[in-house]
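Students often ask why inverse folding is considered easier than folding. One informal answer: many sequences map to the same fold, so there is more than one right answer. In these notes we will look at a single instance of the problem. The structure comes first.
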């Protein structure tokens, strides 16, 4: 029988039975006082410092390092990284709250919270040696540098384990050959967390830290996604990387994916937050814009759109919070991350798309930010494990068995 996840997620005691009188319920849907205060203070700061430049930032393909430096000063980078490593020692839920509050004022600035808390920096902080942390974390946590993840390759997208970029040991260096595509911030990062093949099969995969400027490493000219972000192909030709830059050697793939679930929560949280931003703009518009002598919100055809949008956002938010709260400072489970990512990616896109419809020509215009929200949410349905791959994963949980996506071995030969 398939394992039941639902009961254990909501209760601190998985063995707990039906509540009897006098039992205290273990489900609490409210923020703690500390979380409320944190959310309010981040929101005040974001409204003050980030909201004024939100439109310009959305249309600038460059990473907003100015925002990153300000966010660092506010303690909003490295929220889940231990204080001993220069982080804030907070929880994954704190980082989710930060993304939501920043995005509510400036959707593009939520990328800074992602980069400083959920992205490859999280995998780095989890597995890096003390020497690696000392060399790279201070600049990343101060918002001076950024790190980009190189997993996808021209022939290895959803089938990530088919990656072909190789690393072979030669004296005290690894020699890296191959290429990477689509990396977020790849056009301007200074450090790259690159998934590599040290040998055959799943157990042959690991990762290294490769600095921009390493001989044999070329960052190609930027291409642009529909969401406005730029990415560059990364080329490695006889690129010699010091052994001291090894993050996870062969056999490290499962660990990397475990940490990658935290990155997925950032993708998930931004989808929800950016969808919510579009929802709020559509609500304001429907309240103030008048046609046929009435405010738009008085037409039932639009009221039902808002009811559907609210339902999608609220349901998705519960799944996101569950995944984050259960993870605490650790890493979220694959199951809860998958459910949350699916729900938030779809809700964010559907809501932003519907917000454009509600706002008509204003929503479709580049002056509204709502069309930007739709474009951003569209990308997260592909990035970090596509909607289809997440559904494959979920189906395996439902049936409690693995469904291979590959042809039988004989057919591959
Ligand atoms: C905005 C954005 C940011 C990104 N950031 C990064 C990054 O920082 N680092 C990085 O390494 N990569 C990044 N990527 C790349 C991303 O991880 C890949 O695009 C993704 O894994 C899909 O791979 P692909 O594009 O090669 O599509 P393919 O794998 O070729 O898939 C094409 C389509 O087929 C579907 N499909 C494939 N296999 C199956 C299957 N078994 N069952 C059902 N459907 C299937 C997919 O869902 C998709 O719809 C980013 C992509 C985007 C869009």
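Output (designed amino acids):
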């Amino acid at each position: 029988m398939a394992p039941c996840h639902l009961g254990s997620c909501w209760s601190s005691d998985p063995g707990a039975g039906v509540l009897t009188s006098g039992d205290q319920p273990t489900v609490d849907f409210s923020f703690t006082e500390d979380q409320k205060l944190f959310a309010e203070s981040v929101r005040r700061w974001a409204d003050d410092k980030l909201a004024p430049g939100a439109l310009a930032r959305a249309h600038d393909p460059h990473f907003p390092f100015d925002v990153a430096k300000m966010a660092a000063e506010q303690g909003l980078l490295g929220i889940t990284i231990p204080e001993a490593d220069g982080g804030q020692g907070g929880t994954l839920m704190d980082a989710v709250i930060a993304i939501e509050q920043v995005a509510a004022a400036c959707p593009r600035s939520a990328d800074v919270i992602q980069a400083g808390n959920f992205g490859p920096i999280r995998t780095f902080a989890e597995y890096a040696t003390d020497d690696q942390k000392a060399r790279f974390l201070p600049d990343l946590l101060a918002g001076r540098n950024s790190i980009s993840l190189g997993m996808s390759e021209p022939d290895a997208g959803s089938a990530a384990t088919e990656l072909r970029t190789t690393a072979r040991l030669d004296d005290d260096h690894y020699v890296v050959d191959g290429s990477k595509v689509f990396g977020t911030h790849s056009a301007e990062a200074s450090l790259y967390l690159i998934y590599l093949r040290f040998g055959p099969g799943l157990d042959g995969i690991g990762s290294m830290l490769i600095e921009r400027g390493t001989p044999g490493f070329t960052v190609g000219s930027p291409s642009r996604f529909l969401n406005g972000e730029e990415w560059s192909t990364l080329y490695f030709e006889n690129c010699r990387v010091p052994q001291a830059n090894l993050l996870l050697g062969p056999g490290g793939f499962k660990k990397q994916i475990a940490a990658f679930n935290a990155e997925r929560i950032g993708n998930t949280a931004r989808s929800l937050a950016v969808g919510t931003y579009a929802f709020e703009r559509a609500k304001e518009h429907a309240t103030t814009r008048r046609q046929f002598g009435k405010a738009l919100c008085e037409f039932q055809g639009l009221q039902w759109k808002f009811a559907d949008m609210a339902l999608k956002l609220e349901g998705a938010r519960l799944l996101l919070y569950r995944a984050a709260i259960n993870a605490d400072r650790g890493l979220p489970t694959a199951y809860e991350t998958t459910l949350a990512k699916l729900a938030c990616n779809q809700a964010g896109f559907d809501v932003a798309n519907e917000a454009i419809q509600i706002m008509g020509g204003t929503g479709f215009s580049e002056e509204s930010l709502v069309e930007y929200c739709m474009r951003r949410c569209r990308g997260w349905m592909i990035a970090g494990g596509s909607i289809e791959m997440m559904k494959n994963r979920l189906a395996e949980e439902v049936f409690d068995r693995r469904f291979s996506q590959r042809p039988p071995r004989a057919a591959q030969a």
